[in-house]
Amino acid sequence: MKTILTSLLTKKWFEPFILFVILINCVLIGVETYLQLDWITLVQQAALIVFACEILIRWIARDSVKSFFKDSWNVFDLVLVLVSLIPESLFENGSWVLCIRILRVFRVLRLLRAAEEVKLIVAVLMRSFSALTYNGLFFLIFMYLFSLIGLNLFKLPDASTADDDTLIQLTQYQKMAPNAPEISPDPYGDLSESMFTLFRVLTGEDWTDIRYNLLHAEELNLINVSPWVITLFHVIWYIISAFLLLNLLVGAILNNYQVIMDETRIKE
């Protein structure tokens, strides 16, 4: 029995068949958000049966229990199948049902094991995780530092505590340089908003509008900062975040990609 199932796993049609079922399953997960049809439910249940049989075959054909669970893909598939087998009728709490449904959507991630190239990319990301963690921490330190600087330099007066003259200036400022969108708060009103503003600058999303608005605020004496300081602050942050810090992340990933490629060639 074990020999038959082991040979089945090596058949050329086995992986393409599983891939086909995964694709159908993924497509129908999206279709179910628009249509609730009986045949879609039946196909989804059939796909789940195929996934369960696949896991069972891999379990029977395993070399050992340790080898089975040592393969992270086996554990990943097993968890997804077990979650999908949990009936929603067991839970009266709507939040638990919602959690189960959300976890089932992760079946889409089974596509990650569809091809060797995809597995290689996942392996690179996993190998790069520690480097990405330290680079991310380095990035957050700089973002926190610049957020504090921006908060102290560019925070506009609070309208609830401002005097009459300041309120007039704030009203004039909102007419001259409204935030985009107008309902958005002061870009540097508090620490969290300041950090979000810097993230916006990083993405390049209309970040020059922030500079122009601050220049108008300086003209109205709402902030006591020179125009060149406003410009220099945002340009320096954009250079550091968009070019230096992101390139560090890309460099770490590319380095690990080359390492894994070399290891793969040695194994072959």
Question: Quick gist of this model?
Answer:
The chain has 268 residues and is mainly alpha-helical. It is built from 12 helices and no strands. The model has no long low-confidence stretch (mean pLDDT 80).
Notes on the structure:
The structure is a single chain. With 268 residues, this protein is an all-alpha fold. The protein has two domains: 2-114, Four Helix Bundle (Hemerythrin (Met), subunit A); 130-267, Helix Hairpins (Orthogonal Bundle), CATH 1.10.287. The protein is built from twelve helices and no strands. The chain has helices at 2-9, 14-31, 38-60, 65-70, 72-85, 94-105, 116-127, 129-154, 164-176, 191-203, 207-219, 227-267. The model has no long low-confidence stretch (mean pLDDT 80).
Number of domains: 2
The Cα radius of gyration reads 27 Å
Unreliable stretches (pLDDT < 50, length at least 5) are: none
**H and E order:** HHHHHHHHHHHH
Q: Name the helicity range.
A: over 70%
Strand content: under 5%
Structural class based on helices, strands and sheet pairing: mainly alpha
Number of helices: 12
Quickly give the CATH architecture of the largest domain: Orthogonal Bundle
At the first level of CATH, what is the class of the largest domain?
Answer: Mainly Alpha
Distance between the termini: 30 Å
| Fold-level CATH name of the largest domain | Helix Hairpins
Q: In one word, what is the shape?
A: elongated
Compute the average pLDDT.
Answer: 80
The description of the largest β-sheet is: none
Strand count? 0
